[in-house]
Amino acid sequence: MSAGTAAASAPALRLGTRRSALARTQSEHVAQALRERTGRAVELVEVTTEGDVSRAPLSSLGGTGVFATALREALLAGRVDLAVHSLKDLPTAPAPGLVVAAVPPREDPRDVLVASSGRRLADLPAGARVGTGSPRRAAQLRALRPDLQVVDVRGNVDTRLRMVSEGHLDAVVLARAGLLRLGRGDEVTEVLGTDQLLPAPGQGALAVECRADDEAVRAACALLDDPASRAATTAERALLAALEAGCAAPVGALAVTEDDGGLRLTGLVAALDGSATAVRTGAGQLDDAAGTGRRVAAELLASGSPALAPLVPGPASSPQDAQTPQAARLVTPPDPAHPDTPRTSSAAPQPASNTHDTAADAPPERVHP
To answer: Are residue 31 and residue 70 in the same domain, yes or no?
Structure first.
């Protein structure tokens, strides 16, 4: 029997996926790649997660993990053979018995604006209502445009776009990767630069997870792995883990490969009210991606970032790990009366005041059509 015949006669691989249109599209992309690489049949198995059924803000659900737990339970119970996650939704802590067998080539990690009348961020009038379910996006939006009204929203991509088309919101901020995968990239009115909104760690990347002891499935999934995408997201997620922050925290990170084969990582911690943003950048080699992430996280912690957001140093990110003693760059929102005033200050971050704490803790307005 030939290898091709054996593969075709093998049982279909059961791929666990969330039920949303985006999740199914991403999972079908992985399924098709597996069919082409291995010759095996792959079938999608829908799994409902807490994040799919609850309409509460993500921060109140515990943040990272609300979309992954049910898929992981299905894997461990043997109901599915592999699962596809949006990597930014996957907890950084290893799951006993499971392994991320592949990180396929990453899609564009940037955020985008979809606004009524084709407007860009600078075109939105004061008081315009901009929707996002992400504390990271909300914090950076408030830093860029403190005159906007940031509205907390839930729902799938179609629901959020409809909030704009039906006039409930003036704009929404979404991940470009999801819109491109859904074939809706032409609805974007502005691609936001990473100097405006730094993406979430792992944004734009997928993770293919399976049981650690299933050698056959691990080998099949490994055919889809992209080393550059894995290295970049490893650095970003190591930073997130060292800060002990999840997707409900206002933390951004983006690693890019350089011409010399190295890796450059930028990390960000923001005050939820947009009052200040700490940014640090570090470089390292691809084979030390996790170390680069931990070093940049240590510098953020040493700079005073815990005064901006509720961060706790991880076991491998003590301030002594920081390579330089200089403080993180503080980016403060522009004065609306003097919009050309530089937004970068070299001053060291100050502890949050009671006023700041109140602003950071106050939940934004929510829209749940």
So the answer is: yes
Question: What value does the mean pLDDT of the chain take?
Answer: 82
Is 111 one of the annotated active-site residues of the chain? Answer: no
User: Tokens representing 355?
Assistant: 């006023």
pLDDT at 62 over 70: no
Please tell me the total count of domains within the chain: 3
Catalytic residue from among 52, 81, 89, 123: 89
Distance between CA atoms of 350 and 268, rounded to whole angstroms?
16
Give CA–CA dist 313/242, Å, rounded.
6
- In this predicted model, what pLDDT tens digit does every residue of 126-171 receive, in sequence order? 999 999 999 999 999 999 999 999 999 989 999 999 999 999 999 9
131 and 74 in a common domain? no
Q: Is residue 30 situated within a structural domain?
A: yes
What is the residue range of 92's domain?
Answer: 3-106+205-225
Residue 245: count other Cβ atoms within 10 Å of its Cβ. Answer: 25
Confirm if 186 and 89 have CB atoms less than 8 A apart.
Answer: no
Strand locations in 258-301 (E): 262-270, 277-285
The partner residues of 113 in beta bridges, in order of sequence, read 173, 190
94 and 125 within one domain: no
Percent pLDDT > 90 in the chain is: 69
Specify the DSSP class assigned to residue 223.
T
Percentage with pLDDT > 70 across the chain = 75
